[in-house]
Amino acid sequence: MLKNLIKPVIFILCLLPAAYLIYAVYLAFNGGENLLGPDPAQYLSLETGEWAIRLLIASLAISPLRYLFNLPSLFRFRRMIGLYAYFYVCLHLLVFLWFLLGWQWGNIGIEIAERPFITIGFVAFLLLTPLAATSFNAAQRKLGRNWKKLHRLTYAVSILAVLHVIWIVRSSYFDAVLYGGLVLVLLGYRLLRKYSPFVQQFSFIK
After folding, report:
1. What is the pLDDT of residue 109?
2. Residue-level pLDDT at 18
3. Distance, C-alpha 105 to centroid of its chain
């Protein structure tokens, strides 16, 4: 019974930040309490971006945690968490187009070309889109072995996401160092597991 509740609980927990932000925007547009601070556009952009990279890192952590702690059941949550990461990436892009760009479509190309951090973020979004579109069982069956090759783009996306964070940092580099360190550890573990028999066999729980 408890196992059946874990997935819905994770689903709701991943949704809560978006629900809070949508509620905050609703209040702002209807003259309610300001929950978005003095610069609502920047707050929304940072929050959606933060949750996107957090969930992307969480999805990357599933495989190492599964092997290190002998928890094959963790794989059940990887797709959902990965799709939530894409969901927050889409919200991040929406905030940029709506609140920061004002739907000025003619300026999108200029912004992407002239601001490297936007270029990197947009490339990450483009790479992540086919991964989200092919995350379902039918696509996995149709693509066969190519499905795993395609979804290795997640590694490139995670590196681009960290670079995106580093580029927009203005004062504290704590988040950039934290996310970068986690991505480095997770990708490093994958390389070690691929080439080291010891790492392949190692598990904290047998």
Report:
1. 75
2. 98
3. 25
CA distances from 141 to 60, 63, 65, 144 (A): 22, 20, 25, 5
Q: Of 21, 78, 76, whose CA–CA distance to 50 is shortest?
A: 21
Q: Domain residues of the chain, as ranges?
A: 2-201
Query: What single letter denotes the amino acid at residue 182?
Result: L
Q: Of all residues in the chain, what percent are helix, strand and coil, respectively (each to 5)? A: 85, 0, 15
Q: Tell me the backbone φ, ψ of residue 172, rounded to 5 degrees.
A: -90, 130
d(CA 128, CA 88): 12
Mean pLDDT per 10-residue section of the chain, whose length is 206 residues? 82 97 95 92 94 97 94 92 97 90 77 82 94 92 90 94 86 85 95 92 83
Q: Kindly calculate the radius of gyration of the chain based on its CA atoms and give it in whole angstroms.
A: 19
2 DSSP assignment: H
How many angstroms separate the CA atoms of 144 and 142, rounded? 6
Q: Helices then strands (H, E): number in the chain?
A: 10, 0
